[in-house]
Amino acid sequence: MTPLVRTAAHAGLLACHECGLLARPAAAGIPGHCPRCGEALAWRRPDPIQRTWALLIAAAILYVPANALPVLVTDTIGSNEADTILSGVVFLYSSGSWPLALIVLIASVLIPIGKIVALGYVLVTVQRGSARSNRQRTRLYRTVEFIGRWSMLDVFVDTFVVALVQLAPLMSVQPGPGVLYFMGVVILTMLAAQSFDPRLIWDSASAHGVHDGD
Amino acid sequence: MQHVACRGCDLLQRVPALPPGAKARCRRCGQLVAYRAADPLDAPLALAVASVVTLGIANTSELMSLSAAGRVASTTLLGGSLAMWEQGNEVTAVVVGLCAVVAPIAYVLLLLTVLVAVRFPPAPRWTADLMRWVERVRPWSMTEVLLLGILVALTKISQLATVSTGPGMYAVVALVVLLPWLASSFDAQAVWSRIRWAADEGARS
Lengths: 214, 205
Description:
The complex is a heterodimer. Chain A is an alpha+beta fold. Helices cover 53% and strands 10% of the residues of chain A. The longest helix of chain A is centred in the middle third of the chain and has 30 residues, at 98-127. Chain A is elongated and about 75 Å long. Chain B is elongated. Classes of the chains: A alpha+beta, B alpha+beta.
């Protein structure tokens, strides 16, 4: 009979999330501190399900004004134009830079919503105790973690357009209200990915006695 | 021989002694579990020093400028954040300042201090605190996203006026190469093994 996999949790050991040292808890039920680096030990990240859901839902709510409200307002002699993220994409496309239009579309529109959906999916499967597709879900989580920062793209674009185009009354650009909401979406989704513990994906597998990754 | 619990799936594994430059991955989920740098002390230190210099240039030199109808405007990296502040978007200014300026500088300076401190093992306890901050700061250092953002902004503005790039821009490009290189050459375990244990400190006092 093949043995169950041994996770640190099963063996009663704690892995320090800071320096990686394996240690025994200070006493029954009390994790204590890492003897090497002094960081507080924990079996899993605190409240991963609740916190991640709360951050995801908040991010989803902010996603609406982030895209609906303008992010840049351009003042030239004789006209005043407010641009949302999407109209900025259209502008880039129609002025011939379709690769950049695609990049902004992916980074600012698709990635944030993709992160929310992906993390939501992982959360639901973990809550249902699913023990299948662990490797794929782990890969999905890692992709979300890695790609998150790229959604900040539009914030940087807006910042530097505003910083440079200040030649009133000839032309000047101001940031629109959408920027703040958009930044909120990016930060909240980054925090959501940080608050989730990927080991939860595999905890179901270990509990059901699945003896190697599938 | 090292016992580890995978950060991604918690599986207990034994990692054999690795040859220099080798990586070990979790046999269940593929997460990196161990890495032994070929040159754990000198290479990252050299990269950190180079990064500090480049960061200095990137943040103080002109990034780009535009001219239209005889008028000229230019900005630096910090200027982007300041412009947002002046426009009343203080929160955006702080976040942009954090991700574009403060986090990269903090990351490099913290690493530099740690790398110098561990050249004289056992390094004092405050080195452990610095290492903690390195990990906290790293996700917020977004130089590559910043560079792409600047390029897109340049493209947008070039529709309205003539734009040109300054030395700051080249420094940012150099950072996009240097910082990931620094991060991947850094061997955290080599550093942790040279820091005085918290338990030792507690036992003495």
